[in-house]
Amino acid sequence: MPRAHPHSSNRSLWSLCLALALSLITPVARSAEWADCWKAYTEGRYDEALKLAEEGRKANRRVEDWRLILIRANLATGKLTEARKALEAAVDDFSTYGLRIRIAGHELAQALGDVDLAKGLLQDLGSMAGPRSRDSATNLVAIGQAAIHMGIEPRLILENFFSQAKRKTPEYRETYIAAGMLALEKSDFALAAEWFREGLGKSPKDPDLQYGLARALSSGGRSKMAEALTAALAVNPNHVPSLLLIADHSIDAEQYAEAERYLSRVLAVNPNQPDAWAYRSVLAHLTHKTEEETAARDKALVQWKKNPRVDFLIGLKLSQKYRFKEGAAHQRVALEFDPDYAPAQLQLAQDLLRLGQDAEGWELAEQVHKRDGYLVTAYNLTTLRDALSKFTILTNAHFQVRMVSSEAAIYGDRVMALLNRARTNLVSKYGATLEDPTYVEIFNDSKDFAVRTFGMPDNPGFLGVCFGRVVTANSPATTTANPANWEAVLWHEFCHVITLTITKNKMPRWLSEGISVYEERQENPTWGHAMDLKFREFIQNGKLAPIGKMSSSFLTPESDEFLQFAYFQAGMVIEFLVQRGGFEKLKQVLIDLGDGKEINPSLEAHFGDLKSLEKDFEKHAKQLADKLAPDVDTARPETGFTNLGQDRQTWETLHPRNFYVLLDKAQKLVTDKKWTEAKAALEKLVALYDGPTGGTDPRILLARTYRALNESKDERRVLERVVSMESAPLDPVRRLLDMAAASKEWDAARRLAQIHLAIDPLTATPYLVLAKANEALGDAKGAIEALRTALLLDPPQPAETHYNLARLLHGQQDPSARRHVLLALEEAPRYIEAHRLLRAIVEPTQKPTP
Is the Cα torsion angle 601, 603, 607, 609 positive or negative in sign? Predict the structure, then answer.
């Protein structure tokens, strides 16, 4: 359970729940007629199921199962009046027992918005106390479901009802559905997946279990989610929850026509399904159809005029499209309908935090957490609030930056300087007006970043996220395993601030990311995503997405490599558009979006027919790919090299200039430390292609080989080539920095130190080298600043660092020189030069020995 914090249970409610034990319940019907009825229901043949259930009811009025089908099949098809009649008849016939009927009735009461009916059914459940109910799995599950509505601690429900029910009757499907849905409601997706998977082990074709698993996987494993939904719909093509979930994710992918197709299927089953109409309202909003938006929302509220879920769902989807202001407005309406509706409270809290309205946002999150300690997202947010309260805040007229104090002291000034430069450049370039300050939060714990950004501590590989005027980012401390250029990240995210402001957050994902990648490379050619052999291979293998469908590449990439390719392609499209029609036309597209126009018509208005545009871009991309390495063969055997066996020699003979064959051979020579042979092989390979590969870089291997052979001049040449082309080559930068310092090439050392600090500003070495370089180049103040920072990072020779800082400060007549020379002597009491410097400070006529 991620970061969940259980509260103590409400004892009176717990006692009431235990007292519910009791109902005599008829065994589940086991006739052939029942099997046919159940099959019809699970396969979505609801009219047939209703007919068979009515026949069964007439034949045997004392069996609950027939009544449950009559209630649930009518509910599934939106026939709420008929469902209520079936419920009332069942309650009359089962006046002293029938827990499952009352649980089904409670679901119906919620669909009707009938608070009195819902309360009455729960009171019935409480009055049906008797000692025999806990002997039945069916009753245990029903009692557990009642306990949920009574507000009992969820962990107790799982342990004392659902887990017991599983032990009594492992094959009872309702146990796994009830437990899994409870975990989903509390955002505990991992636990939910466990329950649904276990249930599917008993009932592998159950559409409700498949749907539950799909929901549990929806925040991460989208391909697995799709598999589960496909399995659910294969059994029941009319399974409304599954159809709605596909529509939901189609909206996320900006595949609005596909979303509408699935919503139409839902409404063919249930013409009044409120979620379907809520989604239609969202689609109408996103396509700027104001009248249809209002009409669809009204239709969603037909059966329950104050259903808080309708506006919650509309607001949620708008917020997921970065329309946080509009989303928050819908959450406020939902809370007018039901002030205690926790989903709307929690979503409004997150919307407000993303709008920079922190005080109200944190207060709402705290309220939800106090009422429901099991709700993981609320607990995560309140815990994060405590962490954020300890952050240092750096401010100026345009930015408020929050960082942990230790990091703020080290590179906070660099952050502010970079953001100021980005603002100066990009505001002018795009003609944007930023009326409010931009909030930037930099987290030294990736889990805190993920909670602030996504509500959960799982970070799917993001370095930074922009919500409009609020930016969140991981600090370099979180990326030590896979270094990233934090300056490039912040530049990228601030560009989002510009474009989201101009468009009023109304822009497709691909366009937003594409412009930010483009602007990274405009600022620094090593930033952003550049063409490499992997991307070249994707293009040549037909992996380019059509421009009109590019946003889906960000939602459902085949792998992390394909996600990176999506960023690269988006940036390449922007560069292509600017080359084709000019930058001013790109700006006009952003203005159009802010005015409510759709992306594709705007593109066509300024850049030409979309089909022609897509065709020309594909041709352009293929030309760039072919041009990258025209003499290099990058083919791979379909089975992979390791599976070629005896055919490998034949394959290699047919591909004498194959990059991967040559690389594999060279790697083996390096591993075996056959440096002379490795040098020849790698020089041949780098002569074929001298650029980014998207994988193992032969230039790095060649530099390592040169170093082993003491050929430092060639090593340096190759490493400089790498650094000139990539944004975060930390190891090559470190090596070059050492070489430049050793040879006292101070201009190069200062340049390389700055590159190092853009990747990793949290180690002392680059500051120490920068101090030497600055001093040698006549910048005493720069040297002093670098040494002060180095001392915050536990430098390897603190006495020497304090001494050098004291020496420079003394040269600037700074009285703090004395403190640092004393600190040097504290570290090394026999430090002769420090003693001389102290004497010079105490006796100004005595000059220290250089």
Answer: negative
610 contacts 603 by C-beta, under 8 angstroms: yes
Helices 240-252, 222-235: crossing angle, 10 deg rounding: 150
Decide if 497 is inside a domain: yes
Number of domains in the chain: 3
Q: φ and ψ at 118, to 5 degrees? A: -60, -45
- CB neighbours of 791 closer than 8 A, spacing ≥ 6? 798, 801, 802, 805
Amino acid making up residue 278: A
Contacts of 527 (CB under 8 A, 6+ apart): 485, 487, 488, 491, 492, 520, 521, 727
Mean pLDDT check: name the lowest of 1-15, 21-35, 122-136, 763-777: 1-15
- Report residue 570 as tokens: 């988006």
Q: Give 612-661 pLDDT, tens digit per residue.
A: 999 999 999 999 999 998 888 888 776 666 666 667 777 778 888 888 88
Residue at 652 is within a domain: yes
CB contact at 8 A, 25 and 98: yes
Cβ atoms of 300 and 274 within 8 Å: the answer is yes
Provide DSSP, 516-537. HHHHHHHH-TTSS----HHHHH
Q: Compute the distance between CA of residue 48 and CA of residue 547 in angstroms, rounded to an integer.
A: 46
| CA atoms of 670 and 705, how far apart (whole Å) | 7
- The helix (run of H) or strand (run of E) holding residue 67 is helix 64-76
Residues 580 and 650 in one domain: no
- Is residue 625 domain-shared with residue 637, that is, in the same domain? no
Task: Give the per-residue SS3 of 581-647.
Answer: HCHHHHHHHHHHHHCCCCHHHHHHHHHCCHHHHHHHHHHHHHHHHHHHCCCCECCCCCCCHHHCHHH
Q: How far apart are alpha carbons 169 and 171 in whole angstroms?
A: 6
Task: Show the CA angle centred on residue 447, arms to residues 446 and 451, nearest 5°.
Answer: 120
* Cβ–Cβ < 8 Å for 270, 47: no
Say which CATH number the domain at 434 has.
3.40.30.160
Domain shared by 672 and 598, yes or no: no
Q: How many CB atoms lie within 10 A of CB 360?
A: 14
User: Could you list the residue range(s) of the whole structural domain that residue 483 is in?
Assistant: 390-505
Q: Which residues pair with 392 in a beta bridge?
A: 403
Question: For residue range 492-505, what is the model confidence (pLDDT) as tens digits?
Answer: 999 999 999 999 99
In a domain, 299, yes or no: no
3-class secondary structure, 83: helix
CATH number, domain with residue 679: 1.25.40
How is residue 540 annotated by DSSP? H
- DSSP lists the bridge partners of residue 440 as 401, 471
The verdict on 614 and 679 lying in the same domain is: no
My answer on whether 596 and 680 are in the same domain is: no
Contact predicate 659/688, CB 8 Å: yes
Query: Which of 583, 601, 629 is at the close of a domain?
Result: 629
720 and 636, same domain (yes or no): yes
Encoded tokens for 45:
């043949």
Q: Note whether 427 and 438 are same-domain residues.
A: yes
Residue with tokens 């250029």: 485
Distances (CA, A) of 379 to 234, 285, 367, 374, 530: 38, 32, 10, 8, 40
Tokens of residue 354, six digits:
């993303």
CA geometry: angle at 66 spanning 63 and 72, to 5°? 135
Amino acid at 136: S
Examine the domain organization and report whether 621 and 676 are in the same domain. Answer: no
Range of lowest pLDDT (115-124, 501-510, 532-541)? 115-124
The CA distance from 635 to 69, in Å, is 58
The Cα–Cα gap between 805 and 767 comes to 12
Domain boundary pick from 466, 489, 505: 505
At 675, list the tokens. 């440096």
Q: What confidence tier does 24 reach under pLDDT thresholds 50, 70, 90?
A: very low
Q: In sequence order, which ranges of 397-445 are alpha helices (DSSP H)?
A: 405-430
